[in-house]
Amino acid sequence: TKLAMSSAGGRAPDLAIMHLSRLAGYAPGGLLDPWDTALLEEFGVPQERINPRVRALGRYEKQPYAIPLDTHPFVVFYDRTVMDKAGLLDSDGRLLPPESPA
Q1: How many other C-beta atoms are found inside a 10 Å radius of the C-beta of residue 82?
Q2: Which residue, of 29, 35, 44, 61, has the greatest Cβ tally within 10 A?
Q3: Number of domains making up the chain
Q4: Contact (CB, 8 A) for 61 and 23
């Protein structure tokens, strides 16, 4: 990608946007620098304002490398009657976790 090539060439941008799933490919190779959380707080982005579970996803080896712009929750709607007939509800009537990716 452009980010990887510019980083490898010593001309990386000061700030970039990427999907969080790419963090593991960039942080270990030194292509990203961790955020200075004191500096972020100075500019009005205290860590407490970011959901702790989301904030944890942006860390690599306990260092913050990513700040979420947004989140993409996954939601499942289902018909309880149909799921119950298919045997896909637990004893409390909640959907059982999937056993395969399909």
Answers
A1: 9
A2: 35
A3: 1
A4: no
DSSP 9-27: TT---S-----GGGHHHHT
Express each pLDDT in 59-89 by its tens digit. 999 999 998 888 878 888 999 999 999 999 9
Mean pLDDT, rounded, of the chain = 88
Over 35-89, what HEC string results? CCHHHHHHCCCCHHHCCHHHHHHCEECCEECCCCCCCCCCCCCCCHHHHHHCCCE
Which pair of tokens denotes residue 27?
């942080």
Q: What is the pTM of this model?
A: 0.63
- Structural domain contains residue 88: no
Do 67 and 45 meet the contact criterion of CB atoms below 8 Å apart? yes
